[in-house]
Amino acid sequence: MGFDKKGSLISYRPDIKVMDCTIRDGGLVNDFYFEDDFVRELYHTCIKTGVDYMEFGYKASKAIFSDKEFGKWKFCTEADIRSIVGENNTDLKISIMADIDRTNFREDVIDRKDSVIDMIRVATYINQIPSAIEMINDFNAKGYETTVNIMALSHVNDHDLMEALELLSQTGVDVIYLVDSFGTFYPEQIRDMAERYLIVGDKAGKKIGIHAHNNQQLAFANTIEALTLGVSFIDSTVNSLGRGAGNCPTELLLSFLKNPKYNIEPLLVFIKEHIVKLKENGLVWGYDIPYLLTGILNRHPSSAINFIKEGKNDYTKFHEYLLDNG
Question: Do 158 and 195 form a contact (C-beta atoms < 8 A)?
Fold first, then answer.
């Protein structure tokens, strides 16, 4: 089954929703130690730009992770989010992410009617699908919108993927995400994957999303490739701030989308006043040769992250290390 392109370069699709993940994915760069002023200004910037969702961080368990080692956006307490957004009487929806086996979801996640959070995104590996379904069911019962993000997709075989998609399509999840965790996919592969997701999604009435990483400088290209087929939930981060090579840049994505509700001017101001300062203070992210190498070899970027942190630049030796430790 093939999919015709949806929309054109001069039209817009009202079904498209933009999720800014700057705090959540960017938190993986600085252990979630964002100052409140940064988060508050980003929140107001997202409102001004017309972004649909803002992801604040993780709902991690403090029984597993120490709040002495991670900033508050690793845990996203109700009080901390409300200190930024109040009652959030805006069109912007608030999202957080919950990792399988890293979230005490039954006790730490309150009912939606008592929360300012709108959506909870479940992050899962392919071998954790039953646990993901359990969490989705719990969050749905509490009244939240939900997504499920199958991570490390480039390491999943076709049979397991299709079985997982079928199982997830039978839940109450709202959006099923295609995730290029290692930044290893090319647009042609994204097209093939997106079609598989959309076939299942269309049959079950589920939306499909994409979360791309920029190891090969393809996060934006892969995102718009998926969009053209009908994928409608799209993740991005301001100035590509995210783990390792970063993500699809919010400002680039909004400049591509033709919906008149989106406005990049406030983003440009935010980048000038806040993102530049992060770089000046030594925070490092974005495309670099080590991430290229892990991307083309379909490896987790952790070794590249460590290589860069250690100030190394012997790329040939690093390439040989990756080849020898496959």
Answer: no
User: DSSP string of 253-295?
Assistant: HHHH---TT---HHHHHHIIIIIHHHHHTT---S--HHHHHHH
CA 151, CA 201: separation in Å to the nearest integer?
Answer: 18
- Number of Cβ within 10 Å of residue 91's Cβ equals 10
Q: Work out the burial of residue 180: count CB atoms within 10 Å of its CB; fewer than 13 is exposed, 13-18 middle, 19 or more buried.
A: buried
Contacts of 320 (CB under 8 A, 6+ apart): none
* Res. 74 pLDDT band, cuts 50 70 90: very high
Domains of the chain: 17-280 (3.20.20.70), 289-324 (no CATH)
- Coil, strand or helix at 152: coil
The residue count of the chain comes to 326
Cα(196)–Cα(255) distance, integer angstroms: 28
In the block, tokens 């969490």 appear at 135
**Per-residue pLDDT at 84 exceeds 90:** yes
* pLDDT the model gives residue 219: 98
